[in-house]
C-alpha cells in the first residue's frame, strides 16, 4: 500500500462514521464521534502537510486506473492547510453544539459528518466533476442542518439557501460539462493552462468560476448569505462560516493558478467585483438588528480581502497568494469565534437582537472580552491574527503600484472603517448601556458555552504571536500551489490518457 492510497480515507472515514451516528440512538457516543472524526482529519491534515513538505505532492487514482482516466485524489501543502483549517472550525462548532444541546436532535451529528465528508473530498480531489459531487455532498446535509429546528423563519432561510445553491450547482455542472465538451477532460492537472487564452475553454472555465464565486458569497449574489446563515443556530452558522465559503476559496485559488495560469487580463474585473464586495460587506452590517446578522456581513466583507489577491499575482504571485491564504486562515478562526460567542449570548438570554440586550460588559466581562478581541481581529488591530492578515494583504496590494493598488488600498481602508463602525455599534447596543432588568440577577453565560470561542480567540492570539511560523506555513503552501508541473506529474503520472494539448487548444482559439 502506497502513502497516496491513504487519501480516500479522509473521505471514507467521516462518511462511514456518519452512518454509524445515524443508526446509533445514544447521544453520548454520537457526541464523541462528532469530535473525534474532525480531530482525526485535522491530525491527518497536519501529517499531510509535513509529509508533502518532505516528499512532495501525493496522489492516488481510485481503482488504480491510468492517469487522466480515473477519479484522482491529490494532496499538497496548500490542500493540507485548508483541510486542517476547515477541520479545526468543524471541531469547535461541534463542541459548541454539544454544549448548547443541539446534538439532542437525532441526526445532527450524522449530518455534520456528511458535511465534513464533502469538505474533505472537495479539498483533496483533482477532478472538477468530483468537486461538483463533493459540493453536493456538502449541501445535502446543510439543507437539513438549516431547517431541522422547524421554525418558520429557519424554513424560509433554508428555502433561500436551497434556491441559491441549486442554481449555482446547476451552473457549476453546466460549466464542467461544457469544459469537458471542448477539452475532453475534467481532471485539473490535465486542464493546466487551457483557460489562459480565450475561446470556448476560457468561457467554460469562466462559468465554473462564476458558480463557485456565487457559493462564496461574492457580489452581486452575496445577499443570500446574510439572509440565511444568521437564521440557523449559532453552531450551524459557525460550521458553515469556516466550511462552505472557504472550500470555494480553495477551488478559486486552484483554478486561477492551474487553469487560468494567473492570466493578468482578468485583473481589472477581479478588482472591480472585490472592491464593491468589500465596501458593501463593511457597511451593510450597520443596518442589521441582531449580532449574528452583523457578523454575517463581516463574512461578506472578508471574502474579497482574500480573493482580491488573485488580481495581484502578475507582480509577486507568491506574496499575493500567501497574503490571501493568511487572511483566509485568520478569517475562519475569527468569524467562527465571534459567531460562537454570539451564540453563547443567545443560548443564555434567549435573543441576539441588539435592542433587547444591554449592559453585558459589566454583567458578562469574559463574554465582552472575547467579543472585543474578535472585533479587534476583524478590523485588523493587534494583538490578534487580523493584524498581520490585513498587513500582508495591504503590502501585496501596494507592491505593483498603479491604479489597481490605489483603488484596492482605498477600498481596504473604507471597508475596514465600515467593519469598525459595525463592531462599535454592536458593542454600544449590547455591551454598554444600562444593566438589563428583565433577567434574573444571577443569570450568566455558562463557562462551557463560552469555552469554544475563547479557544478560537486564543488561537488568533497565537497566530499573532507566532506570525513568522504562520507566514512560513502559508508561503510553503503557496509554493506547492504554484508548482503546477509537480502537481500535474503527481496526478497524471508518466503515461496519462485523454489529456488535452493546452498549446493546441490555445492555437485553435487564436485562429
Automatic annotation (TrEMBL):
Main location as per UniProt: membrane
Membrane topology according to the record: Multi-pass membrane protein
A Gene Ontology term for the protein's cellular component: plasma membrane
Localisation: Cell membrane; Membrane
Domain of life: Bacteria
Limits of the NADH:quinone oxidoreductase/Mrp antiporter transmembrane domain: 127-408
Keywords: Cell membrane, Membrane, Transmembrane, Transmembrane helix
Family statement drawn from the similarity comment of this UniProt entry: Belongs to the CPA3 antiporters (TC 2.A.63) subunit D family.
Protein name: Cation:proton antiporter
Amino acid at each position: 500500500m502506497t502513502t497516496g492510497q491513504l487519501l480516500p480515507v479522509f473521505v471514507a472515514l467521516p462518511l462511514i462514521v456518519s452512518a454509524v451516528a445515524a443508526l446509533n440512538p445514544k447521544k453520548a457516543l454520537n457526541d464523541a464521534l462528532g469530535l473525534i472524526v474532525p480531530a482525526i482529519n485535522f491530525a491527518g491534515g497536519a501529517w499531510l502537510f509535513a509529509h508533502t513538505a518532505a516528499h512532495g505532492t501525493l496522489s492516488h487514482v481510485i481503482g488504480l486506473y491510468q492517469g487522466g482516466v480515473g477519479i484522482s485524489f491529490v494532496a499538497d501543502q496548500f490542500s493540507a492547510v485548508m483541510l486542517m483549517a476547515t477541520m479545526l472550525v468543524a471541531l469547535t462548532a461541534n463542541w459548541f453544539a454539544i454544549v448548547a444541546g443541539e446534538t439532542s436532535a437525532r441526526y445532527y451529528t450524522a449530518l455534520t459528518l456528511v458535511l465534513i465528508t464533502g469538505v474533505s473530498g472537495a479539498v483533496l480531489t483533482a477532478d472538477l466533476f468530483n468537486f461538483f459531487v463533493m459540493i453536493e455532498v456538502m449541501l445535502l446535509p446543510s439543507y437539513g442542518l438549516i431547517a431541522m429546528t422547524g421554525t418558520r423563519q429557519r424554513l424560509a432561510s433554508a428555502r433561500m439557501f436551497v434556491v441559491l445553491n441549486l442554481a449555482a450547482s446547476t451552473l457549476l455542472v453546466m460549466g464542467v460539462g461544457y469544459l469537458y465538451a471542448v477539452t475532453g477532460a475534467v481532471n485539473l492537472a490535465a486542464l493546466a493552462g487551457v483557460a489562459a487564452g480565450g475561446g470556448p475553454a476560457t468561457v467554460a472555465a469562466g462559468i465554473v468560476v462564476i458558480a463557485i464565486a456565487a457559493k462564496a458569497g461574492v457580489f452581486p449574489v452575496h445577499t443570500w448569505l446574510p439572509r440565511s446563515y444568521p437564521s440557523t443556530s449559532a453552531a450551524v452558522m459557525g460550521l458553515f462560516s469556516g466550511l462552505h465559503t472557504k472550500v470555494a476559496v480553495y477551488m478559486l485559488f486552484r483554478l486561477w493558478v492551474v487553469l487560468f495560469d494567473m492570466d493578468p487580463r482578468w485583473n481589472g474585473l477581479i478588482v472591480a467585483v472585490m472592491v464593491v464586495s468589500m465596501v458593501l460587506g463593511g457597511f451593510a452590517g450597520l443596518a442589521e438588528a441582531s449580532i449574528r446578522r452583523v457578523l454575517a456581513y463581516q463574512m461578506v466583507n472578508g471574502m474579497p480581502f482574500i480573493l482580491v489577491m488573485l488580481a495581484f499575482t502578475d507582480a509577486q504571485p507568491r506574496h499575493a497568494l500567501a497574503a490571501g491564504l493568511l487572511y483566509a486562515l485568520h478569517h475562519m478562526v475569527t468569524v467562527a469565534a465571534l459567531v460562537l460567542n454570539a451564540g453563547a449570548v443567545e443560548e443564555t438570554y434567549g435573543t441576539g437582537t441588539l435592542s433587547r440586550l444591554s449592559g453585558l460588559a459589566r454583567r458578562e466581562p469574559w463574554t465582552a472580552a472575547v467579543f472585543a478581541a474578535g472585533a479587534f481581529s476583524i478590523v485588523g488591530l493587534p494583538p490578534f491574527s487580523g493584524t498581520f492578515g490585513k498587513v500582508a494583504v495591504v503590502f501585496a496590494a501596494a507592491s505593483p503600484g498603479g491604479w489597481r493598488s490605489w483603488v484596492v488600498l482605498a477600498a481596504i481602508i473604507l471597508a475596514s472603517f465600515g467593519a469598525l463602525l459595525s463592531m462599535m455599534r454592536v458593542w454600544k447596543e449590547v455591551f454598554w448601556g444600562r444593566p438589563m432588568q428583565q433577567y434574573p440577577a444571577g443569570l450568566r453565560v455558562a463557562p462551557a458555552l463560552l469555552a469554544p470561542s475563547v479557544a478560537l480567540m486564543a488561537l488568533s492570539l497565537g497566530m499573532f504571536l507566532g506570525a513568522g511560523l504562520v507566514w512560513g506555513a502559508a508561503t510553503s503552501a503557496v509554493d506547492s500551489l504554484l508548482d503546477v508541473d509537480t502537481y500535474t506529474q503527481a496526478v497524471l503520472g508518466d503515461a496519462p490518457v485523454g489529456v488535452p494539448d493546452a498549446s493546441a487548444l490555445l492555437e485553435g482559439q487564436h485562429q
